[in-house]
Specification:
By secondary structure, this protein is α/β, with parallel strands linked by helices. It contains twelve helices and seven strands. InterPro entries: Homeodomain-like_sf, HTH_RpiR, RpiR-like, RpiR-like_SIS, SIS_dom, SIS_dom_sf, WH-like_DNA-bd_sf. This is MurR/RpiR family transcriptional regulator.
Length: 247
């Protein structure tokens, strides 16, 4: 029901509605438009605009399609987590998303240095991404310490791949700004393309997974999409490198 193109068309207020809806489908099906307006802290006009961007004529039709979507998910998949994962793969099954991956691969192949940057779990994924790229023939390094000193000139002809769920971590943003000032191209992989990190990047790839937190502190949003994106970029890099060898 929610295509990647539709989600990317949402502004920040409409995205707040989307986040609530995707996390509370059952509740929304029994809400009035005014009740949804109150819990999402947006106007009813914003909700109607959101419904229109979801290709429905109004809130009533949107709820009907939402109900049909929920029922189809329950019939197809045994668990809620699986349904969200399958929904991700459906959303990215299009030429637009493939084009983003191609652009990332081209940028990586055309640079002499590839650096992965991330903190916490994103740092661990950065290490995996660096190893995967190295395995396919493009040497890459990872940094999980945003304060790690790097000599002048190191980032010449480089691309930095930055991983972050929120794209708002202060230390990461400072390091990205520093890398940009040293002429490093920035590719970011984030959950939303409206975050600050995405706006600082030369290329952003957003995956729009349901945000999840435990104990109001620990982020457990699925990172399976990030692994998939890294591996798909790596395979495209491998093909480009092989094509260059045959020329």
């Amino acid at each position: 029901m929610f295509s990647l193109q539709e989600i990317r068309s949402l502004n920040e207020l409409e995205l707040a509605v989307y986040n609530y809806v995707i996390s509370n489908i059952e509740k929304v099906n029994h809400m009035s438009i005014r009740e949804l307006s109150e819990v999402t802290h947006v106007s009813t006009t914003t909700i109607l605009r959101f419904c229109k961007k979801m290709n429905t004529d109004g809130f009533t039709e949107f709820k009907f399609k939402l109900k049909m979507y929920k029922e189809s998910q329950e019939q197809s998949f045994p668990t809620e987590d699986a349904s969200h994962m399958i929904d991700f793969f459906k959303k990215i099954n299009n030429d637009e998303f493939d084009s983003l991956l191609n652009q990332a691969a081209e940028l990586i192949v055309n640079k002499n240095k590839v650096i992965f940057l991330g903190i916490g779990s994103s740092g661990a994924l950065g290490k995996y991404g660096a190893r995967f790229l190295s395995n396919v023939g493009k040497f890459a390094q990872h940094l999980d310490d945003p304060f790690y000193p790097v000599p002048d000139g190191y980032y010449d002809s480089s691309v930095t791949i930055v991983l972050s769920v929120f794209g708002e971590t202060e230390e990461t943003l400072k390091q990205v700004s520093r890398f940009k000032s040293m002429s490093s191209a920035i590719i970011s992989i984030t959950n939303y393309e409206t975050c600050t990190l995405a706006k600082l990047s030369d290329l952003n790839i957003a995956y729009y997974m349901q945000f999840m937190k435990v104990k109001n502190e620990y982020n457990i949003t699925s990172q399976v999409p990030v692994v998939y994106i890294l591996e798909m970029i790596g395979r495209k890099v491998q093909r480009l490198l092989e094509q260059r060898k045959t020329k």
